[in-house]
Amino acid sequence: MKNEINIIALDGPAASGKSTLGERLANYLGFVYLDTGVMYRAVTLAVLKQNVDVEDETSVVQVAEKMDLDFCPPSCSDGRSNDVILEGEDVTWQIRKPEVEAYVSLVSTYPGVRNAMTMQQRKIASKGGIVMVGRDIGTVVLPNADLKIYLDASVEVRAERRYNELIHRNQNPDFDFILSDLKRRDEIDSTRTVAPLKPASDAIIIDSNKMDAEQVFQNLVDIIKTRKLN
Ligand code: CDP
After folding, report:
1. C-alpha to C-alpha distance for 156 and 40, rounded to whole angstroms
2. How far is the CA of 211 from the centre of ligand 1 (A)?
3. What is the pLDDT of residues 165-206, one digit of tens each?
4. Does the C-beta of 139 come closer than 6 Å to ligand 1?
5. Cα 152–chain centre separation
6. Could you give the CA distance from residue 148 to residue 160 in angstroms, rounded to a whole number?
7. Mind listing the domains of the chain with CATH numbers?
């Protein structure tokens, strides 16, 4: 393991708190933050907008390869960390819609889609100073990352966190639906043939079942400080 930390891979299942933690860590270190889930969501939204059949793998891959996606500083303070721009349109909240959530895991199983996203993610990481968040960052996208974290929590705890997040966004969530949908996405994400969700063999696994966001963050800061001292 290296002492110099320049590239951090942060993986874990849906609603494990990766995005909150990743963004906070990137700010703390002065690093770039990239949530790769946004990229898979954007492909799914582009597919839906272009009326492409989500089961038509060849056409979905073509959409992914041609997609024009950009991240810009936040244009307003409505809880977003940045603007997600797809083909010139601000889709920051559209990518969180239930329709996208319903198909994103299927779209993410297609090897051609993963290949297109992985290439872009590696290009972004090549500049260094990055916290990249996803499912396969430590295992596939950045296997040489200086620090790999796998953030885990039981599906019940994650469902509760997602429920509270939606309440916070003034939505009207149904806990049982959230729970069953997380189970459905976990199953697809962890059983797919290419780049399944799993911890890298050299990842540090953080079980956040009994930790709040602050405790997880402090835990990670301690890990980084210890690593730098050794
Ligand atoms: O926010 P949430 O944890 O619900 O999901 P996300 O991180 O935005 O990712 C949405 C979906 O994209 C996941 O359920 C995966 O199917 C897929 N994904 C992936 O396959 N690989 C990644 N590196 C990131 C996301």
Report:
1. 24
2. 22
3. 999 888 899 999 999 999 999 999 999 999 999 999 999 999
4. no
5. 13
6. 26
7. 7-225 (3.40.50.300)
